[in-house]
Amino acid sequence: GGYGSAGGVNRFKEILLEGGPKYVFVLNCDVCSDYPLNEMLVFHKKHGGDATILVKKVSAEVAKDHGAVVLDPEGQGRVLHYAEKPGTLVSNTVNCGIYVFSCPQVFDAIGTLLSSRTDKDEHNLVPASMASKLKKNQSAAVLQQRLGMPEVFSFLAEKKVLYALESRGFWEQLKQPGSSLKFSALYLSVMGSELAHARARLKGGPEIVGNVYIHPDAEVHPSAKIGPNVTIEKGAMVAEGVRIKDCIILNDVQIMPNACLVNSIIGWNSVVGPWARIQGTEDYDSKMGVTILAEGVVVGPQVVVVSSVILPHKEIKVSVDNEIVL
């Protein structure tokens, strides 16, 4: 909530330090990565600093909207400077939102930063409208404990105890719900589709194209064509003649005969009627690119849904295009 990323970690200090751990991992929830945690821990122990952040080299256009990391060319990964979303190009090496900290050193650093604040500093951490509201509601305790992780990184960089490990795998940030399709494709590229192909050979189908995951408890008709980049979860039922491409099909979905689904996410217990078409675009980071059916949506026969978001438990009887159905 109002504590900030570092303040939030500090709020659970006693729980995190139970058992006397030497290290703690902190992961942002809006990123997709191959998470090289073992490699990070080995690197962290080797350099002996207080913190290691996973970083990635990206284009200049992307870099200006992320935490920029300037590395010491002679420092074996030591960070010279950290700037959060600078707006201009400071470095094309950016923070991936995956960290390992030494304990209790990181909490000492957070404590130092919090105790060094004045009341004026605390209120400058939030917009004026929010600060006045918090003050009115006498939430000074929250303001006093609010601290962002970028402030911690800048402090540790100045102390020369912040290091960075460059990711050699994949990394993406969740920008819109449709980004989940991009994430799914990345994980499927690692998993492959050997199990889906083996199952298809045993059952005489379906046709598998590219990387596909089909849960063992899902039922897919042999005449269906699935892939690339499709995940079909437990309890889903895919009928004859169905075509699915670049989709996530969640638990207990029913897809009736000859339906076609492309660039879509189909929520739990939803039903797609016969000959229906559910499709989005490949602009996964756009607000209205991917079509998303929330839980329990029913799409009628021959209905076409294009680049739309359908909220839970709605019945769609007529075609919709680029709409949010409340």
Structural summary, described in words:
28% of the residues lie in helices and 29% in strands. The protein is an alpha/beta fold and 326 residues long. A hairpin with a 7-residue loop joins strand 4 (68-71) and strand 5 (79-83). The chain is elongated, with a radius of gyration of 24 Å. It starts with a helix and ends with a strand. The model is unreliable at 122-130 and 134-139 (pLDDT under 50).
What's the rounded overall pLDDT mean?
Answer: 89
**Which range best describes the helical content: under 10%, 10-25%, 25-40%, 40-55%, 55-70% or over 70%?**
25-40%
Which descriptor suits the 3D outline? elongated
Q: Which parts are unreliable, with pLDDT below 50 for 5 consecutive residues or more?
A: 122-130, 134-139
Task: Report the sheet-strand fraction.
Answer: 25-35%
Strand segment tally? 26
SSE class: alpha/beta
Specify the biggest β-sheet. Answer: 12 strands, parallel
N-C termini distance: 27 Å
Radius of gyration: 24 Å
Q: How many helices?
A: 11
